[in-house]
Recover the amino acids of this structure.
C-alpha cells in the first residue's frame, strides 16, 4: 500500500517514511495542507497520516473537508497535542485514529494496518484467487504448492489485482500505487512489470489470467468465462497483439 504523510518536520517525516518502508509500506511526504489536498486528489492513497500543526493551517480543517466531500480515506492523526479535548475534536471531525507524539513507530504501523484492513481497503494478510495465494506481509506468491520467486513490484501489482478481481484497474491507479510522485519513472514501466507477472503465472500453471484493456488498464480473472468490459470489441488482450 501507499500512504500520504502530511508532516512539516522534515527530519521526523523522513524517519517515519524510512520505518514504514521497512514494513513494506510505501509513502509520499508533504508539509502543507494545500500540498496534501493536491496529492490526495491525484493519487488513490490507502491512508493519510496527518500532523495537525501545519504551516498553512490546522489539519482538523482538512479532515472536515475530506469527510464533507464523502471521502472514506482512513485518517490517522499524529500530533503533539496531548489533551483529551484535542483527541475528541480530531475524532469527531472524522479522523479514524489519533496518536499523540512521541509514539512508537511499531504501534503506528500496527494501527495503520488495522485501519486499512476494513472492507475495501488495500491491506490484508493472505489473499487467494484460483490456485494463487499472496502473503501481503512477506510478499510471497504461491501457485498451488509452488513458490514464485517474484519481485516486490510484481507482488504489489498482484495484490491490487486480487483485491479488485474482475474489475478493470486503471493504469494510472497502478502507477500511483507503485511510484507515487516519482517523476523519474516512465509510465511504460508498468507494462514491463505486468509482462513479468503474467509470464510467471503462466509458467507456474496459475488458474488466473491478467488481461490488458488497451488504453485503460488491466483486469484479473479466474479460470472460466472471459471478462466482460464495457468497451468496444478487440480491446481485451492477454498480452499478445490481436487483430480487429
Amino acid at each position: 500500500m501507499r500512504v500520504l504523510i502530511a508532516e512539516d518536520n522534515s527530519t521526523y517525516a523522513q524517519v517515519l517514511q524510512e520505518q514504514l518502508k521497512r514494513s513494506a509500506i510505501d509513502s509520499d511526504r508533504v508539509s502543507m495542507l494545500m500540498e496534501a489536498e493536491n496529492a490526495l486528489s491525484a493519487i488513490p492513497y490507502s491512508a493519510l497520516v496527518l500532523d495537525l500543526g501545519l504551516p498553512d493551517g490546522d489539519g482538523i480543517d482538512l479532515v472536515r473537508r475530506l469527510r464533507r466531500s464523502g471521502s472514506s480515506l482512513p485518517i490517522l492523526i499524529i500530533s503533539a497535542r496531548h489533551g483529551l479535548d484535542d483527541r475528541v475534536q480530531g475524532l469527531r471531525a472524522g479522523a479514524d485514529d489519533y496518536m499523540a507524539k512521541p509514539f512508537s513507530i511499531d504501534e503506528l504501523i500496527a494501527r495503520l494496518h488495522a485501519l486499512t484492513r476494513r472492507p475495501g481497503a488495500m491491506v490484508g494478510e493472505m489473499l487467494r484467487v484460483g490456485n494463487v495465494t499472496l502473503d501481503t506481509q512477506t510478499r510471497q506468491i504461491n501457485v498451488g504448492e509452488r513458490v514464485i520467486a517474484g519481485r516486490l513490484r510484481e507482488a504489489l501489482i498482484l495484490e491490487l489485482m486480487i483485491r479488485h478481481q474482475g474489475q478493470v484497474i486503471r493504469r494510472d491507479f497502478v502507477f500511483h500505487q507503485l511510484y507515487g510522485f516519482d517523476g523519474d519513472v516512465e509510465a511504460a514501466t508498468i507494462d514491463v512489470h505486468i509482462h513479468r507477472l503474467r509470464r510467471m503465472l503462466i509458467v507456474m500453471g496459475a488458474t488466473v489470467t491478467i488481461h490488458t484493456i488497451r488504453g485503460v488498464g488491466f483486469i484479473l480473472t479466474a479460470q472460466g468465462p472471459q471478462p466482460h468490459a464495457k468497451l468496444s470489441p478487440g480491446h481485451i488482450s492477454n498480452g499478445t497483439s490481436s487483430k480487429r
